UniProtKB/TrEMBL annotation:
Protein name, as recorded: CHAD domain-containing protein
UniProt superkingdom: Bacteria
Organism: Auraticoccus monumenti
InterPro entries: CYTH-like_dom_sf
Length: 474
């Protein structure tokens, strides 16, 4: 007889999960002819009643994100419970702490803060679980398998909203035939085998049963703008939460991962600006600038790592996070939500490029620095719009962005900030210092003028190629 492989042995030891009708009577899983001789209770210490109070915000935002926070009481012993398998390893699959007092332990409160944000936690449901545990034995009283049988009643607002029954079969030393028969026996009384048991929070009914958009939304070239924005922001939010939790859990000390995610989302929202509510984009953009700066910028220092916990717990940070979460559920669109995303994205790129080219045509070597700085901002907007469009129109948007960069790469040096610094300091300088500063000013002006003339000399050709790229079929 061929020996079982390591993979087969591993598979045979994995627990199997079943959902059974609540009212089905207990099933004795005994069949002596295949070596399953008896099924006995593990005793009162393993069979008990458990009262669970689910804690959440009023809109069940933790539950909908796949996070279960509760306090449990069994045999008059209280404990705090946290479970978030979908966010492992940054949040625990299961975490239990003794209930020393009525306040949520700081270690747990900090981990759920990005999900709770500014909302207060309140009891939202009560669960009563009757747990029974059994062992299934062989001819020599050896343990072949263990079985957990949970019957749960869910009450909300004093009203019973559901009852369910969950059975976990944990093989210890079962043959393939024995495991197959046990599975068939549980299915024979109405059981349904499932890959994993759902978290308790998902049993609370609407709206908890809808796990929001955290599982990820898909889009394609035919998706409307609302679906596209929702999917894009949700994907970034998942990255944001993951980077946030890595810092909170202490698994990562470098804030670079978080600031890069924030900068990416900021850039994408800038690229979508023509399709979003202008005031909303302006406010959020300002808050992202503050947050990235507060976390040390895109090249964080040791001091920014020290400040990170205070920033992540601040009301300003939680308010921004809440605003973006709301936007992932109801995008702040300017009115084109039902239009095909590809069309809107292409139009956004074309409008941004046209604004960039129009501003460039008005410039001369002697134009004020503010006008040249404005051209740089318009170049950034055109780049951001093309970056977002690459999600749906990769070839076309990449070609347009390449042409934008051919011109925008000539912008550095067209506005030299040192000139303004020298101008402001002249009144405070002595004669010799003023003379030195004047010579330096003249050198910088010559270099700035040279950079401007270089860009303008290439503008006509660059403009023609950029226009051709934007008009090409996408």
């Amino acid at each position: 007889m061929a020996r079982a492989t390591d993979a087969e042995r591993s598979a045979s030891l994995r627990p199997r999960y079943f959902e059974l009708p609540f009212g089905v009577s207990g099933q004795r899983l005994v069949r002596p002819d295949i070596g399953l001789v008896s099924m006995v209770s593990r005793g009162p210490e393993h069979s008990y009643g458990l009262d669970v109070t689910i804690l959440d915000a009023g809109d069940l935002r933790l539950t909908r994100a796949g996070v279960t926070l509760a306090h449990r009481v069994a045999d008059q012993r209280g404990e705090w419970y946290l479970s978030a398998p979908g966010w492992a390893p940054h949040l625990p699959v299961e975490m239990v702490e003794p209930m020393g007092d009525a306040d949520l332990p700081t270690s747990i409160a900090e981990l759920v803060l990005p999900f709770r944000r500014q909302a207060p936690l309140t009891p939202v449901a009560a669960l009563h679980c009757e747990r029974s545990e059994f062992v299934i034995r062989g001819p020599k009283r050896e343990v072949r398998a263990r079985l957990h049988d949970d019957r749960v009643t869910v009450r909300r607002g004093g009203v019973t909203v559901s009852r369910y029954r969950e059975v976990t079969l944990q093989p210890v030393d079962l043959t393939r035939k024995q495991l197959g028969w046990l599975t068939e026996a549980l299915q024979g009384v109405g059981g349904t085998r499932v890959d994993a048991l759902p978290p308790p929070g998902s049993r609370l009914g609407v709206p908890a049963s809808g796990l929001g958009r955290w599982s990820g939304s898909e889009w394609d070239t035919g998706t409307d703008l609302e679906g596209f924005v929702t999917a894009m922001v949700t994907a970034r939010l998942r990255e944001w939460f993951t980077a946030d939790l890595a810092l909170r859990a202490g698994g990562q000390q470098d804030t670079t991962g978080l600031t890069e995610v924030l900068a990416g989302l900021r850039g994408e929202l800038r690229g979508l600006a023509p399709a979003l509510e202008p005031r909303w984009v302006e406010d959020v953009d300002e808050e992202f600038d503050w947050l990235i700066g507060a976390l040390g910028g895109l090249s964080p220092t040791t001091s920014s790592v020290v400040k990170a916990p205070a920033v992540l717990s601040s009301q300003r940070y939680l308010r921004l996070l809440d605003v973006v979460v709301q936007a992932s559920n109801v995008p702040r669109l300017g009115g084109a939500g039902s239009a095909p995303a590809s069309e809107v994205l292409a139009m956004s790129v074309q409008q941004s490029v046209e604004s960039f080219l129009k501003a460039g045509r008005r410039l001369s070597p002697t134009s004020p620095p503010a006008d040249w700085a404005g051209l740089a901002l318009l170049a950034d907007q055109a780049h951001a719009a093309a970056l977002v469009a690459r999600r749906n129109l990769p070839t076309w948007a990449r070609r347009v962005d390449k042409r934008v960069r051919r011109l925008s790469d000539l912008l550095p040096g067209c506005v030299d900030p040192q000139l303004e610094v020298i101008e402001r300091s002249v009144d405070e300088l002595g004669p010799q210092q003023a003379f030195t500063a004047g010579r330096r000013y003249e050198q910088l002006m010559i270099a700035q003028s040279r950079a401007r003339r270089e860009l303008l000399s290439q503008w006509a050709q660059g403009q023609t190629r950029l226009r051709a790229a934007t008009r090409a079929s996408w």
